[in-house]
Design goal:
Layout lengths: L3 E9 L3 H19 L2 E7 L3 H7 L5 H8 L3 E6 L9 H13 L4 E7 L17 E7 L9 E4 L7 E4 L5 H18 L4 E6 L7 H13 L6 E6 H10 L6 E4 L1 H14 L7 E5 L5 E5 L16 H13 L3 H18 L12 H13 L2
Helix pairs in contact: 1-9, 1-10, 1-11, 5-6, 7-8, 9-10, 10-11
The protein binds 3-isopropylmalic acid (IPM) and manganese (II) ion.
The site of 3-isopropylmalic acid (IPM) has 5 residues, from helix 4.
Length: 355
């Protein structure tokens, strides 16, 4: 008998619940084949619940989350709720409270996917961004002075602790070693301008590097990183960076791998409860139309199973996704896939079962 994993399902807003349903379909197919199972609990936190009850994400839910093996998330963000309330109150609250200090975002081009980098193929676009996920500009440190006057000042501070930076960099070195591809870790920063924050990052990077003589180290400013991600993506293997830069460069990475329809990520606490999600938003205009691409959510499910130690099941899902793209899909864009959201979920699940 295989294990039973306790998974919290949080569909969230917009198309989140739809893509998550397809992800669940696929992980369940993989679990059946590989002989393990899930104990699933659904949570309806999101814009609708907030507007009805005023509740965002209570501390009691965080306590329940701690007992889970992982959280599987759809998308957060509702057009009728002021931007920031749900994003900070649900997504960032979960990331911070559960100390998911790594945001792991693979950028991988599957065969047959259209990318704006036409002369780059799957060999050239295959790297992973390790984004620090609990510090930097996301801490909410700062404030207003003389708010709503002509002399108003707004300050938003980037918090970088030695501990926070070091654990992220160490995770990146370990990940690079385990990945065992090019064995190259690039620090993405801005040492020429952000001379405090990235001085700490750079010093820590070189100190930790001494424990990993087998890993080649490299440095690139964030602006140059954006350029190389388009011009020479094959230079990258694993990239480590702070929270804000990681947010920005992974949207760029996502578009080079075929768009938000395929880009997945993990919010990881290596010692606690991690949370896996498609990295795109809740796409309100496509909600309820069965047109959104569920592959990003399915790939997030694959990352979750890999994280839980079910490598066989994860591998099956990745191969099934590749088969679906190569044989069944006209495009990865919403509404242009040649199939509906549910049908793509069925196709991937069937390939997972070997049908
Ligand atoms: C992401 C998103 C979030 C972030 C938002 C929704 C708060 O853009 O996961 O990349 O900025 O981290
Ligand atoms: Mn983002």
């Amino acid at each position: 008998m295989g294990k039973t994993y306790k998974i919290g399902l949080m569909g969230g807003d917009g198309t989140g619940p739809e893509v998550l349903a397809e992800g669940v379909k696929v992980i369940q197919a993989a679990a059946e084949v590989e002989g393990f199972s899930f104990d699933l609990t659904s949570y309806d936190f999101g814009g609708e619940r907030y507007m009805k009850t005023g509740e965002i994400l209570p501390d009691s839910a965080i306590e329940e989350f701690r007992e889970l093996d992982a959280i599987y998330l759809g998308a957060i963000g509702h057009p009728d709720v002021k931007p920031g309330i749900l994003e900070k109150g649900i997504l960032l609250k979960a990331r911070f409270a559960l100390d998911q200090y790594i945001n792991l975002r693979p950028v991988k081009l599957y065969p047959g996917v259209e990318t704006p980098l036409r002369d780059k193929g799957p060999e050239e676009i295959d790297y992973v961004v390790v984004r620090e996920n609990t510090e930097g500009l996301y801490c909410g440190a700062g404030g207003f002075l003389k708010k709503r006057t002509a002399d108003e000042v707004a300050i938003q501070e980037s918090i970088n602790s030695r501990k926070g930076v070091e654990r992220c960099i160490r995770y990146a070195f370990e990940y690079c070693k385990k990945r065992n591809r090019k064995n190259k870790l690039t620090l993405c920063g801005k040492t020429n301008v952000l001379t405090f924050a990235f001085d700490l990052w750079e010093r820590t990077f070189h100190e930790v590097a001494e424990d990993y003589p087998e890993i080649e180290t490299d440095y690139a400013h964030v602006d140059a990183t954006c350029m190389w991600m388009v011009k020479n993506p094959e230079w990258f293997d694993v990239v480590v960076t702070d929270n804000m830069f990681g947010d920005i460069i992974t949207d760029l990475g996502a578009i080079t791998q075929g768009g938000m329809g395929i880009a997945a990520g993990g919010n990881i606490n290596p010692e606690g409860t991690s949370m896996f999600e498609p990295i795109g938003g809740s796409a309100p205009k496509y909600t309820g139309k069965n047109v959104i691409n569920p592959l990003a959510a399915i790939c997030a499910g694959q990352m979750m199973l890999d994280h839980l130690g079910e490598e066989g099941a994860a591998d099956r899902i990745e191969k099934a996704v590749m088969q679906t793209i190569a044989k069944d899909m006209q495009s990865l864009s919403a509404g242009k896939m040649g199939h509906g959201t549910k049908e793509i979920g069925d196709i991937v699940a069937n390939y997972v079962r070997g049908e």
